[in-house]
């Protein structure tokens, strides 16, 4: 009986102390990897769309020498191309449209989703 009890005692000690083996690294590794989120609920022209255009499009599509005659600084023109489908068609590299940015890397899926959400909302000047 005694050897059994002391074995149980040792086992329970080992079990209790096993918790202390967890270190910060192990705990972090056990966290589920956060999936990259793309929140398109609060997309606005001013805060979301215009900065993407500034970053990736207005180098060519500006008022000075608008590529293809398209000035994407001017909201009215952005709206026109949003409404006629050419904006989304070109950035999503859909068949029948010139892929944009011309000769550049495709926009991220999240940025394309932002355009999509904004256009679905009626491409408002907000
Ligand atoms: C390196 C210069 C350049 C950049 C950067 C660029 N474009 Fe263009 N884009 C052009 C040119 C040139 C044309 C006209 C091409 C043609 O008519 O064959 C054009 C055409 C277009 C068209 C009409 C496409 C069609 O099939 O009717 C749209 C819409 C457009 N661009 C949107 C964008 C958007 C949005 C961006 C940024 C994500 C962008 N462009 C970035 C040069 C550029």
Automatic annotation (TrEMBL):
This is Cytochrome c domain-containing protein. Residues 1-24 form the signal peptide. InterPro entries: Cyt_c-like_dom, Cyt_c-like_dom_sf. One of its GO terms (molecular function) is heme binding. The keyword Iron applies. Residues 44-123 form the Cytochrome c domain. Keywords: Heme, Iron, Metal-binding, Signal. It comes from the Bacteria.
């Amino acid at each position: 009986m005694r050897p059994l009890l002391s074995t149980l005692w040792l086992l329970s000690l080992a079990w209790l102390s096993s918790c202390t083996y967890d270190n910060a690294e192990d705990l972090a590794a056990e966290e589920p990897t956060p999936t990259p989120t793309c929140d398109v609920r609060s997309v606005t022209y001013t805060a979301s769309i215009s900065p993407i255009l500034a970053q990736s499009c207005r180098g060519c599509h500006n008022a000075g020498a608008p590529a293809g005659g398209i000035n994407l600084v001017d909201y009215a023109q952005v709206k026109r191309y949003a409404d006629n489908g050419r904006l989304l068609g070109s950035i999503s590299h859909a068949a029948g449209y010139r892929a944009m940015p011309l000769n550049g890397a495709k926009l991220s899926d999240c940025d394309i989703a932002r355009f999509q959400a904004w256009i679905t909302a009626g491409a408002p000047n907000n």
